[in-house]
Amino acid sequence: MTIATTDPALESWIGVAADDDFPIQNLPLGVFLRDGDRRIGSAIGDRVVDLRALAESGMLDGWCDRALLCAATLNPLFASGRETMGRLRERLCSLLRAGGDPGLRDNDAEAFLVDRHAARMVLPVEIGDYVDFYSSIEHATNLGRLFRPDGEPLLPNWRWIPIGYHGRSATVVVDGTPVVRPQGQRKAPDAPEPSFGPSAMLDIELEVGFFTARGNALGEPIAIADASRHVAGMVLVNDWSARDLQAWEYQPLGPFLGKSFATTVSPWVVTLDALEPFRVQAPAQDPPPLPYLRDERRAAYDVALSVELQTARMRERGIGPQTISRTNFAGMYWTAAQQLAHATSNGAVTRPGDLFASGTISGSEPGSYGSLIELTWRGARPIALPGGEARAFLEDGDEIVLRGRCERPGARRIGFGAARGRIVPAAG
After folding, report:
1. How far is CA 153 from the centre of its chain?
2. Contact 328, 304 (CB under 8 A)
3. 2 pLDDT exceeds 50?
């Protein structure tokens, strides 16, 4: 599979601003609504290329089966494998680059293009299963210090096994979907019994997730060396968390209602081909993992991440969002390949479009933590905001925006867009 599509010298005949997340080197995949229909598209600059219309025109014949691009989700395209996705990417690059195939440019191009800022994006895949991991050693260490201040921060199994839990795929939502404050049981330390009501400790989790391409058969694990062939692409993930509900319910079986109410993903799937120029070596592991998890490539991706917070009062006063955290995806202890190899090591099945999230991504410094429970040290150090406000956890009307960008010398900067959600009051 060629990586010429990431050549930084490539330019498109569609104008792309220098700081845009979606130059021709990116060409992420998503699903948007057009005339009431779900249609597969690719983003470039401030346009969305309608891939269904392009397929029906015949300009993609021989490169990608029309049926794959006339589907309502990306699942069939992902199931066709990364090789097919790579050929589609090459053809799109040829049609969109300056000096390339003039077929699209000279054939009433506007009929195939939609204003990206006006396009209504929807969840790009039908997610059969959703797994959330716990793969940042900094995050796991911080939580260990919070909850076990007199003990070893990391549990004995953490350096040996990618810890995860099975989430609820039906409540994965796309960027911009309101997040209803969850209700549930919570118990104050000095209370004789629990109570039921809205969460008072609503939190975020800054994550990056991947969707699977081809799956595996029951009883046939995905080998670590083959894992990248089963990854279609990546998105930003906010696995919203109700810390008070979670604290009361999680023993002995782990997260449940404190996590299952909403998980927000960005709408554009950035392919591994687009991310190739930003592949880096993941941190060393000590002790060395067991043989089935030993990854010679140790592929991580240099994605600069940020979290923005804007309160209702800030919006009313015309105060823009404040960045409350900056970190990077490159420092994850357990890689995507290891996560996938482990998840199928017992013979479990993964299918095209399944979502695997990294777990909260935190750095080593206070301003690089990926959750409010860390940033405020469980509420003891509230974040000061413009206009005199402060936050320990989220209040109704607060909006969180996650962003991710890749940038390095010798490569064209690309981005993930945004994953945003605004908190609305509990139902009822």
Report:
1. 27
2. yes
3. no
378 shares a domain with 310: yes
Token pair for 169: 């795929």
CB proximity list for 187: less than 8 A, separation 6 or greater: 193, 194, 195, 248
Q: Check whether residue 148 and residue 14 sit in a common domain.
A: no
Counting the structural domains of the chain, the total is 2
What number of other Cβ atoms are within 10 A of residue 76's Cβ?
18
Does residue 57 sit in the same domain as residue 84?
Answer: yes
CA dihedral (150, 250, 180, 327) positive or negative? positive
Structure tokens at 387: 């206009």
Angle at 310 between CA 309 and CA 312, to 5 degrees: 145
d(CA 167, CA 262): 10
Beta-sheet pairing, 383-384 with 390-391: antiparallel
Same domain, 281 and 210: yes
Same domain for 116 and 35: yes
Q: Amino acid identity of 19?
A: D
In the residue annotation, 139 being an active-site residue is answered as: yes
The span from the CA of 120 to the CA of 230, in Å, is 28
CA proximity to 240, closest of 250, 255, 226, 222: 255
Q: CA 374 to CA 29: how far, in whole Å?
A: 33
- For residue 96, the model assigns a pLDDT of 97
Residue 79 belongs to a domain with what CATH number?
A: 2.30.30.230
- The residue from 139, 166, 230, 342 that is catalytic is 139
How many residues does this entry show for the chain? 428
Residue 15's beta-bridge partner residues? none
3-state secondary structure (DSSP) of residue 363: coil
Q: Are residues 63 and 152 in the same domain?
A: no
CATH of the domain at 224: 3.90.850.10
Query: Over 50: is that where the pLDDT of 285 sits?
Result: yes
pLDDT tens for residues 314-326? 999 999 999 999 9
What's the domain range around 405?
130-424
